[in-house]
Amino acid sequence: SLTKTERAIITSIWDKMSVQADAIGTETLERLFSSYLQTKTYFPHFDLHPGSPQLHAHGSKVVAALGDAVKNIDNMQVALTKLSDLHAYVLRVDPVNFKFLSHCLLVTLATHFPADFTADVHAAWDKFMSIVSSILTEKYR
Ligand code: HEM
């Protein structure tokens, strides 16, 4: 689980990213769909061209969900229950894709906040994203 220092790092980066949630979410998805083409197969019903309204809307939702996790950092499992059911039972996203999405978010954070993105910040966000990802994939059968 996350140390006190890691929690403080996650909260402080969250405060910066929350005011550009749309831009960060959209860029994360653009990076995901251009680097890991197989991830596009889960979104046949979306216009995935860079900058599309659906990318913006979905990017904002993903970042908002991370915000819920940050705000409930001591109780993430409960906060993410609905999303965990959705990804496991309905969407059935291959868990490997969570690693790709997490990586793309980290790259996006590094480009938006270059001065803040120290090795410690990188490590704390990597750990946070792997905890969120394991919650979203733990119900797979
Ligand atoms: C839907 C968050 C990973 C595929 C959603 C929604 C959220 C979300 C908030 C919208 C739920 C709703 O409308 O009620 C997240 C988070 C992730 C993650 C926080 C990782 C940390 C992934 C991955 C994929 C994926 C890796 C596949 C590559 C989808 C799809 C939908 C969805 C296909 C439904 C889109 C739609 O039809 O509106 N996710 N997700 N998710 N997610 Fe994820």
From TrEMBL:
Q: Which organism is it from?
A: Octodon degus
Q: Which family does it belong to?
A: Belongs to the globin family.
Q: Which GO terms describe its biological process?
A: hydrogen peroxide catabolic process
Domain (Globin) spans 1-141
One GO term in the molecular function aspect is: oxygen carrier activity
Which PROSITE patterns does UniProt cross-reference here?
GLOBIN
Q: Which domain of life is it from?
A: Eukaryota
Keyword set, alphabetical order: Acetylation, Heme, Iron, Metal-binding, Oxygen transport, Phosphoprotein, Transport
Q: Taxonomic lineage of this organism? A: Eukaryota, Metazoa, Chordata, Craniata, Vertebrata
Q: Which GO terms describe its cellular component?
A: blood microparticle; haptoglobin-hemoglobin complex; hemoglobin complex
Asked if Transport is a keyword of the record, the answer is: yes
Q: What is this protein called?
A: Hemoglobin subunit zeta
Pfam families, alphabetized = Globin
What is the protein's known function?
A: The zeta chain is an alpha-type chain of mammalian embryonic hemoglobin.
